[in-house]
Amino acid sequence: xxxxxxxxxxATARGRSGIGIVRLSGPDAWAIADQLTAxxxxxxxxxxxxxxxxxxxxxxxxxxxIVVPMHAPHSYTGEDTxxxxxxxxxxLLDRVLExxxxxxxxxxxxxxxxxxxxxxxxxxxxxxxxxxxxxxAGSDEELALARRSFFGDTTGPFRSAVDLLTTALAALEGSxxxxxxxxxxxxxxxxxxxxxxxxxxxxxxxxxxxxxQATARLQxxxxxxxxxxxxxxxxxxxxxxxxxxxxIVSEVPGTTRDSVSDEILLGGYRVTLIDTAGxxxxxxxxxDALARDRTQQALAKADIVLIVLDAVTGLQPxxxxxxxxxxxxxxxxxxxxxxxxxxxxxxxxxxxxxxxxISATEGTELDExxxxxxxxxxxxxxxxxxxxxxTRRQAAELGTADRALGDFEHLSSTxxxxxxxxxxxxxxxxxxxxxxxxxxxxxxxxxxFSTFCIGK
Length: 456
Ligand SMILES: Nc1nc2c(ncn2[C@@H]2O[C@H](COP(=O)(O)OP(=O)(O)OP(=O)(O)O)[C@@H](O)[C@H]2O)c(=O)[nH]1
Ligand SMILES: [Mg+2]
Hints:
By secondary structure, the protein is an alpha/beta fold.
């Protein structure tokens, strides 16, 4: 058995907080905790022990807090584990962490606690990945899917694909291993069976790849770009939607130069709002031209465009361009500053779309605007709904499997059986790697856990 090290990390988010947690896991965890609580009653496992935390030789304790010790295997990692619940001061937490390191622990790698839980058989690889997705979830749907992966079993479709590929391989390999017992007709039959199973497996893989795409879209969220002429009130609307003054607003046209983004939740979906520089008839100067480029770049990323017109100026000829270029995308047209001037009577006909009169500064019709935007966001996000979370790592392996199965399909009537078997084997291996088989612990640590927080 290689020597397992004891790891330590601050498990709570960086910054001031009510409580901060320092976590220790590994064979020396108890010994380190005993030294830090020396001179006090022994720690009782699985109980909240109120103790002072001190380094020997130092007169004053570092802090006082609750120590929760757990014995292997009854802990998250399956190892001896200690959690110190301390005052949530980053400086104090650093001191306690340093004390743990001075007593022989080493700093945990990102996700190393969950990695150890995986190695101890406490979690499956799919559940371990779900832990990260639980922590990272930015919308209700992501959270629901991550919980399904964590508490439920989402290995079903992967296992079915593996089973089908095993059958497909067995059918082919029979004729490879015992050619003398196989007539040409037998061979044709086994190839047909193999093709059928491979096709079914590929269809499962295809479904999972669609889930991967939906997962990526969910995690990316929906991007709403606010665009329009200078000074129409785009930034005022951005601030109103965010409910705090995120961007500078002024009566000087061309106030916003860089695109500015921020996140909100609409209808449970993660939405990135981007405020852009106004686009006038022609660029006023070089800086304005650069700002327009930024706006175009933002528009290229848009899932939804929120076009802002000005009730006072009405439709300006150059605004036609923005309206036309936004047509292929889901979009809304808001006419701002109705507190000064009502929406001109002929504007809707001129624009050729339904309009919503609003006032960003007075709040007029902003609830209605938010409701319409939420509907659009739900439509955009809902068009690709994931049945289960499929992570990027899983998607890459599924891509490998899909390519191999595609090649198998193309070559199945021409290539020799050993080549076909190799392709099926490649697809099967890729799916097994998703399930944590055929993949080394080192590979798991780098491909799965490198995106985790330290302390998780
Ligand atoms: N009366 C009134 N004024 C508004 C409204 N919305 C914005 N304004 C004013 O219009 C001016 C421009 O507002 P901004 O939000 O900076 O406009 P913008 O479209 O971001 O402008 P640029 O960044 O220069 O393209 C400011 O003086 C705002 O106070 C509104 O609903 N009613
Ligand atoms: Mg602005």
